[in-house]
Sequence to fold (785 residues):
Amino acid sequence: MQSSNMINYDYSVAKLFAFATIILGIVGMLIGVIIAFQMAYPELNNLAGEYGTFGRLRPLHTDTVIFGFLVSGIFSTWYYIGQRVLKVSMAESPFLMALGKIHFVLYLLVVVAVVGSLLLGITSSKEYAEFEWPIDIGIVVIWVMWGMSIFGLIGIRREKTLYISVWYYIATFLGVAMLYLFNNMAIPTYFVSGLGDWWHSVSMYAGTNDAMVQWWYGHNAVAFVFTVPIIAMIYYFLPKESGQPIFSYKLSLLSFWGLMFVYLWAGGHHLLYSTVPDWVQTMASIFSIVLILPSWGSAINMLLTMKGEWQQLKDNPLIKFMIMASTFYMFSTLEGPIQAIKSVNALAHFTDWIPGHVHDGTLGWVGFMIIAALLHMAPRMFKRELYSKKLMEAQFWIQTTGIVLYFSSMWIAGITQGMMWRATDQYGNLAYSFIDTVTVLHPYYTIRGIGGLLYLIGFIVFTYNFYKTITAGRELEEEPQSTSPMAA
Amino acid sequence: MFHWLEKNPFFFAVAVFVVIAYAGIVTILPDFMNSARPVVGTKPYTVLQLAGRHAYIKDSCNACHSQLIRPFKSETDRYGMYSLSGEYAYDRPFLWGSKRTGPDLMRVGNYRTTDWHENHMLDPISVVPGSIMPKYTHMFSNPANIETAYAEAFTIKKVFNVPYDKADMPKLGTYEEATKMALAEAKPIVEDMKSPEVKAAFARGEIKEIVAIIAYLNSLK
Amino acid sequence: MEIETIRELQAYGYTFASVFLAVIFYAYIYHLYTSKKKGGKDYEKYANMALNDSLEDTPVEKIEPLDEEKQNRSNK
Fold:
């Protein structure tokens, strides 16, 4: 192929989204630290009038981290991995190039609209789908553009068969599209009545149905944003960084179909003992347990990829991040099903154990994987050596300590709270008033805040390292084949 | 056959979609009609209550308070009768919440009063020592959005046949009638309150967020 | 239609669809693990798509270039 010798992969869109990932990561995590400390020290709620209360900031935290940090990380890695495994450069298609850039600009506009509207309290109240209809339309446009980019690049590929990571990106695209559309079905009230705020809308579903649709979405947004695209990343970056092919490519394909089929059933485990039909609850509970299989299928496949190469774990901080990420993935995909068992859920639901569970998945699995991905891409996108191995090591331990503090304190807090809610005295009366179960948590809320702060500090160390890499790293003459070059 | 799918992106995408859509169809659709039937005695919210519900959503009260009582003795002892599906028939969106940083509010109207809520919103620790709830003083200065609440009630009446203006059901009427009714409904609440700011505003014909949200909380039974 | 009839149809539909998907899934496993022996695909070779992914590397399974035509199509 003559022409391919003259062209190179074009990372301009991947770079833009990488910067967005880092900036939105800092913002989202900072808000997270603030609201964590607000629970320990409620006076912190009053720093910015009505715009600084826990209620306004909590959706901003979840949405900035999910749709800011994570989704731009997904886009960034797609614009990087997509070209490479399909062996086609974006530079070969001016259309896809322009599309990618418009995609980024629109994305930024929507981010601004989201931040503004959530601070003003414009929200539909549905978790992780808080945006009102005008923003929803913007999100749909962005998503469709991403889809065009995926299938456009696939359309001009040189590699006939799609690599497993591309499977996972396609699934992310389809899954989120389906879930998001159905969960956000709403009727703008202004257009029916001619009165009131033009951005206000009312959900098409009521009560129990609304809850079912919301948690079908809410749980599977976790599947298709926190899991599926992150597996796409690790199936590319871990083999590439370690120079080892995936332990079993066949297993990766099987786990893919297993995960696709099983995940969607599990949403109902957010509604155990609620008013949704019993059979839905039981089904959700059972499928949550079954979900361990495909999840561990992927995770074990990752760990075994390192077979015979474990010394890399010591030598290469990027491998360390990715292996720790897979380990946390195994951990949280075991913890989740345990919480979905009905009798455990009776205790755990509504307590701090749930945010604890979410965070060992997001901080450990998602956060570490995206950090490793950005570190792997940096020397290739900017053609420079990674600035400091020592900083990466320090970051790894600071953040790992943070995660451990986070989930251990939330375990204790959640179980304490759950036990106190149901505790009775010798006559069968409730032993504690509600406020007793709040004040007892103060030390754990403080520890959790410190854990979150450590993670944020680690992320800032990472940002500094990334910045120094692209401005002051030693320039590379040619692209590294596997292990990313790094200065001590 | 299988390998063919792996190199045909379009049919591959179709297959993925079928596999992921399957669960939703099986679990959500069958009971859709059943779950939406109201329990006898459940009524849609009045315009003032809806405006209060919007204030509740605006400050994401549902981030810390659930509205779902599970069928356990420890919960029915603490919060009252466990929840029934039909009680939520007019909740758009549902506000079950996913976290109880504060207590459940499903039937808070049974055991809290206007006066208690007023003190609590101004300064939570004055009534619940040790509370970690923020102060919601801005609800005393922000006006309730009656117009949007009416727009929503009008929309759900028209589109989803929510039984406003039926026998024994809340009256909706025209926007002018609805504002008058909202003022009449707010009057006893304002009288029970002590905030001069809220009273002065009400004298000018303006309803503050705090009045609407108290009307909403009192309606939760 | 009676609600019971709908329920019954749903139950049949659900059972058949589940059995069908299970059969497909096990057939897929069988296909994956016997394909190489039967002289078909060696699935493990696809893992190299991540390792040898520079533009100069030879694709595992090439699509013939037709570069000109592709360029035109994507410009539309």
